[in-house]
Design a protein that fits this description.
By secondary structure, the protein is mainly α. The chain has one domain. The chain is built from four helices and no strands. The protein has helices at residues 5-28, 31-44, 53-66, 75-92. The longest helix is centred in the first third of the chain and has 24 residues, at 5-28. The radius of gyration is 13 Å and the shape is elongated.
Length: 94
């Protein structure tokens, strides 16, 4: 489980994109933004290095939080999942 700069950069980039999309989603609640966030999560899952397993697991939590509930999307759950991803990515820095 060694550091892979390419995988780390991919996770960092996708985290930043998710955070930017979440900020937009707070304002607009657009389903297009939800789809973009789901696509970003799927794209980041291409990282297969076991060192990044915890960060990849957080993407699953984000995807789960993005599923609509009867009362709409749970912003708190989405925010918390993204913050866990941030924590995971931060801990992976060399």
């Amino acid at each position: 489980m060694e550091f892979d700069a390419g995988d780390f950069a991919t996770l960092q980039q996708h985290y930043e994109r998710l955070w930017a999309l979440y900020t937009e989603f707070e304002q607009s609640r657009s389903t297009e933004i939800v789809k973009a966030m789901q696509s970003t999560c799927r794209s980041a899952r291409r990282v297969t290095n076991p060192r990044y397993r915890y960060a990849i697991e957080q993407l699953g939590w984000i995807e789960g939080a993005l599923r609509p509930k009867p009362t709409g999307h749970d912003l708190y759950a989405i925010h918390q999942a993204i913050m866990r991803l941030e924590n995971a990515v931060t801990r992976l820095k060399p």
